[in-house]
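Repro case for the chain-ordering regression, as requested:
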Amino acid sequence: MSLFFRLFLLSLSIIPLHSDEYRFGEGIRLGETPVYLGGYFSVDYADFMDDRSAVTLDDMALMLYGESGAWRFMSELEINDMYHRSFGESETTEHSYDVHAERVYVSYEPNDMVRTTLGKFNSPIGFWNMLPVNVLRDTTSNPLVTRTIMPRFTTGLDVDITLRRDHRLTLLLQATPDLDTLFHDENPYNNFDIDRHLSLGYRYLLGDLTFKVNGGYFRERDTLEAWYYGYAALRYEHLAWRVMGEYGVRQNSEGGEEISSGYLQGLYSLNIRHQLIARVESVDDEWIDDDVIFWLAGYTYRPFASMVLKAEYQRDLDTQWQKVLFSFSVLF
Amino acid sequence: MLFAEQWVIIGHGPLPDSRLDAEHLRALYLGERHYMDTQRIKPLSLKADDPLRQAFEREVLKMDREEIHAFWIKQHYLGKRPPKVLSSVEAVLRYVEKLPGTIGYVPLSAIGKHHVYVWYLP
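-- result from build under test --
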């Protein structure tokens, strides 16, 4: 895969870049082709407020995409946790140069009612998972519900049907291992290593309010353990305010273990560059008999639309465990 | 500089649908919709500092420059591109005259002898 990545970079160096239309953060056109190149990276600093801290070069990704008529393709390769250094009781430095296939898909949109996508893509569940990269999301940390209930990525088919402008149905179907197993059989880039995923979703738009609900099933590849999940998300946007909440429940197919999680977040934009965020999150995991509720407050500064500095403070309501996060991320 | 002239949206042929309203036009220019009837639409734009473009973005998209840039940055992650930018009103007129499916905003007075159709009048 690293050879593939090098060839990918080499091919870019021999294609003239078409920079006339370039605006920082919107990608660059490759010559006279309908293909665009972009990418992003993120550096995070975490202080656990107990003498431990860590710096991570969290994401380093390149995107290549384009469209022709009703067809569109996207390929995104990413190196995750490329550099990680921890300080405090155990000082370690770790590197990773493994390149993962994060998104590789082709989509076809023959009209405004139907869109089909084939490949590996972000599971279109909830709101957070649609724009999950640090530079675009609201806080450095991701709400736990987006990592614990459903697979973040699906390798297979996505059919979106817009019934009217305000009603949309989504069908997701996966019947193979994750695309990234072609390169990393042991550790594919997804929060669950799955070989089955079936999900049905509905989105409803009512003025400033958007509501999404999903129900689905997925199977873990190694253990063949099957899970059912339900997921609901709500977003309300009005003037400088945005309120967003997501809640999901996942249950073992044998009716045993159950995990539920959710968050409620308020965001206030002082202006287009400065935002204040407050969020409360909960996770209830029956298997480890743990119930966690914590809150966070964050501040986001965008000197440019495609460059973000974030600060965030998290605190657990029971244990008083706390953490401070800072990050710098860029989309190019 | 404010743009005080009457502007219109022009298309290559007759309007493929019964009408084009402001909401549909906005969705076409923001890449949220791509069709009118069965015709795939390719919107054209002028350069960012063009007073007509600024008027169009203010009146139809109801967004300022920074909001639009922030919007297209998100779309860039999703693999979507902003409308093609042409350097002049004359270039927009020629492009639309030549290529089916393209639309663009131009001053009404600039149409002259160009073989284009008015699709939308604000």
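Ordering looks correct now. The mean pLDDT of chain B is 94.
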